[in-house]
Write a structure and sequence with these properties.
Elements (H helix, E strand, L loop, with lengths): L9 H7 L6 H13 L4 H17 L5 H16 L13 E6 L6 H13 L5 E5 L5 H14 L2 E3 L8 H14 L4 E5 L7 H16 L4 E9 L3 H7 L1 H6 L4 E5 L8 H10 L3 E5 L7 E3 L2 H9 L1
Parallel strand pairs: 1-4, 1-5, 2-3, 2-4, 5-6, 6-7
Antiparallel strand pairs: 7-8
């Protein structure tokens, strides 16, 4: 799966433009990793590992160091399996995340992505607390060629919309059902209770294949803090990172997997309907480091 070139490598160009490794090289590399939102722990671990390898192999040139950094990033990213688990029919995907991260548009793009693999997709508009979310999802569903289950009245119980979605997906032999969920209620507890209710209703009919948490890459570590309640309570199985094209915080991609223990399964790098792709550690490491 090809992925577009992002703006991350700019942070490393000055470092690897010089021929020989000096103590300044390590200082500049540390600054670049922190700036790219690797976080202090991952930065320290990566630098310690690189210093040891440089010494062990008597490496003196920055071009070799660049290759070693690329390999180190890829190795860490590849500890997590980015494969979407969609063997069941219908494969039910719950999409969760705080409002504003691009959750609803991500569902439209995901439906389009899955359609390229000749999958029949049904989406369920279970974010019934926002009328705009239902209309937005309907627009994206139409653009992607997916069908949609709407609430029968405004403010309908989200779990009942989820139930109707899975029922129709089974009756009409859809391959995949993607269910949108609320990103904000009056209290976090209420929101997690609502998600738990959706899960229970769905699981009475079908196993849940994936619970995908959408994160906005431009918010970096702050966005992760906002989403911690979902990770703790919603049974998240994988991450979707949006808005990577506008972010120089590429290290967040590595840091978020290591902090959460969850794989990144999809990445969005543009506004178009085709701008959501599967995540490939090898390609990402190349584009991150340059």
């Amino acid at each position: 799966m090809s992925q577009r070139s992002w703006s991350f490598a700019n942070a490393f160009r000055g470092i690897f433009g010089k021929e020989l490794i000096t103590e300044d090289t390590w200082d500049e590399l540390e600054t670049a990793l922190i700036t790219a939102d690797f976080g202090p722990d991952v930065t320290e671990q990566v630098l310690d590992s690189l210093r040891a390898d440089v010494e062990r192999h008597s490496v003196t040139e920055t071009k070799e160091l660049r290759g070693m950094l690329r390999d180190a990033v890829e190795e860490r990213l590849a500890k997590f399996d980015p494969t979407l688990r969609l063997q069941n029919r219908p494969a039910v995907i719950l999409v969760v995340g705080v409002n504003g991260v691009g959750k609803t548009t991500t569902i439209g793009k995901l439906a389009n992505y899955l359609a390229t693999f000749q999958k029949r997709v049904l989406v369920g508009a279970a974010d019934t607390f926002r009328a705009a979310a239902v209309e937005q999802l309907a627009t994206w569903a139409e653009r992607s060629g997916a069908e949609i289950v709407r609430p029968q009245q405004q403010g309908q119980d989200p779990a009942s919309v989820a139930f109707q979605t899975v029922t129709r997906a089974k009756e009409e032999d859809f391959d995949i059902a993607i269910i949108d969920t609320a990103g904000r209620l009056q209290t976090k507890g209420g929101l997690m209770d609502e998600l738990g209710k959706i899960r229970r209703v769905v699981e009475k009919q079908s196993e849940i294949a994936e619970v995908l948490l959408v994160l906005d890459a431009t918010t970096g570590q702050n966005g992760l803090a906002q989403a911690e309640a979902f990770i703790q309570h919603a049974g998240v199985t994988g991450l979707v990172l949006t808005k990577l094209d506008g972010s120089a915080k590429g290290g967040f991609v590595l840091a978020v997997q290591e902090k959460t223990g969850l794989p990144i399964k999809l990445v969005g790098q543009g506004e178009g309907i085709g701008d959501l792709t599967g995540f490939t550690p090898h390609v990402f490491a190349q584009q991150l480091v340059g």
